[in-house]
DNA sequence: GGAATTATTGACCAAATAGTTCCGAACAAG
DNA sequence: CTTGTTCGGAACTATTTGGTCAATAATTCC
């Protein structure tokens, strides 16, 4: 009954994510987005609403995909040590195996926007909580298998591991160095292992 | 011989730092700065140049003060463990004992700007290096006194400690929680101590 | 007091910003 | 083929952006 959309909405969103990811929210203009997404204003506004709404959609989409990847990494092996290794590989990838040193969109947004924009803050908070829970679950498994230290609760160890990962991702915007990322990953693993 | 400046330049710079610190570079307008600094455009441009230059001056000033504070913390005690404690107290303060959860201006800028603005990137890189060296020195002292582990070089341990601190400061923009910060600090210390 | 010098002020500007509206064209369903 | 809908795209608007400048004011030296 009606004319079908001519562009792939998921593809366009991917382009928006890339743009926001690299430049941040404030530094990205509608023009940047239109170029990257290959749309004109009318289409964009009709499909995604205004800039802020597009940002929220981009952020949510990114977070969901990222979380999916993290779960995959964690579930990739029944051995907790191997799971953690897979997870840290993902982090290393974000740190220094990208075309541009854009770090992690989630981390970038926490720093740039979360406390100035309530909506973003809410979305991110939920994400941070589920990630930390995922880490806690992984660590708990490792404790039960005897691979990880048991002198602290899985939740508290997860807290520290998460902060460490967060630091790697944040710092990767300033320092890009593959060997360093490798060392940091190794240290993270050692940090959790039983004595 | 000439009309004297009516405002305190250091005070004005402090106001600029606060504004950039809380909002970031892009989200801060000249109007915000003028209000915060209590100046009119002409005066600001005469005294500090354009917005970008004012930002660089603010950043440098902040970094120098911060580094000074860090050195004081490190030198506050001859016992390396106490020194590290003092340093982590400083970090905790930045994390959750401020009027607004603004984290650390340096960390915020690394994430927001360092890879898009060469000048900021340069300034920050120099700072990051000197901070990491300071940490390495502190850790080296602790290794010689037998307090810190010696299974890794001071440089590599400093790398990890720095990333951890970086993570605390970055995450503090999204999660503000004093008890958590305390636990994280304690963990950082434990991470370095000899078995 | 007058000259020289510098700071302050506020009006002004050009460019870019986000966001809106409108219309002809394209398309699907009946 | 008609009709209803939604598309793409351009033209438009109102606001905000960072930035300039000439007139005015304050100070010191001579």
Q: Give the radius of gyration of chain A.
A: 19 Å
Q: What kind of oligomer do you see?
A: homodimer
Q: Please provide the count of β strands of chain A.
A: 0
- What percent of residues of chain A adopt helix (DSSP H or I)? over 70%
Tell me the greatest interface.
Answer: A-B, 42 and 42 residues
Fraction in beta strands of chain A: under 5%
Q: Alpha-carbon distance between the termini of chain A?
A: 68 Å
* Class derived from helix and strand content of chain A: mainly alpha
Description:
The structure is a homodimer. The mean pLDDT of chain A is about 95. The radius of gyration of chain A is 19 Å and the shape is elongated. The first copy, chain A, contains 9 helices and no strands. The first copy, chain A, has about 200 residues and is an all-alpha fold. The first copy, chain A, has helices spanning about 10-25, 30-35, 40-50, 50-75, 80-95, 105-110, 120-145, 155-170, 180-190. The interface of A and B includes residues 125, 156 and 175 of A. Chain B binds a DNA duplex (30 and 30 nucleotides) through helix 3. Chains A, B: InterPro entries: DNA-bd_HTH_TetR-type_CS, Homeodomain-like_sf, HTH_TetR, Tet_transcr_reg_TetR-rel_C_sf, TetR_C. Chains A, B: Keywords: DNA-binding, Transcription, Transcription regulation. Chains A, B: This is TetR/AcrR family transcriptional regulator. Chains A, B: One of its GO terms (molecular function) is DNA binding.
